[in-house]
Amino acid sequence: MKTLKKALPLIIIFSFIFNLGSFTYNQEIPSDIAIAFKVGSAEELAKYFNNTIELVIVDKEDVYSKIQAQQIVDNFFTNHYPKSFEFIHQGAKEETKFAIGKLVTFNGTFRVYILIKLKNDKPFIHQLKIVTEND
Hints:
Elements: H1 2-20, H2 31-39, H3 42-46, E1 49-57, E2 60-65, H4 66-79, E3 82-93, E4 96-105, E5 108-119, E6 122-132
């Protein structure tokens, strides 16, 4: 009984810490984004693009309009058709989400970095990087 009394404050603290995550901003990246990468759909991915987006794809780097970015991503998917895609890491801080993914294509493997911010309670991709993965 004495052991339980000593452990009770620790149990309460750990319970509070682990349950605190349920009260924070949802860390999940919308599943439609992962699906768009899996099937190589720039059109579906662009639905989440902000009006302007910082885009880094292999050797192209600039800030593009939503339409320009969609065309560049579409060209990438044409040349690098996906075999698989998975998120390796996701996180969030306040109204910002981020994710790191692994995109395996028929022409190589790429690391994908995504930065999403909420605008009017909707998620928009502000930054997208697709770079060659160094194995």
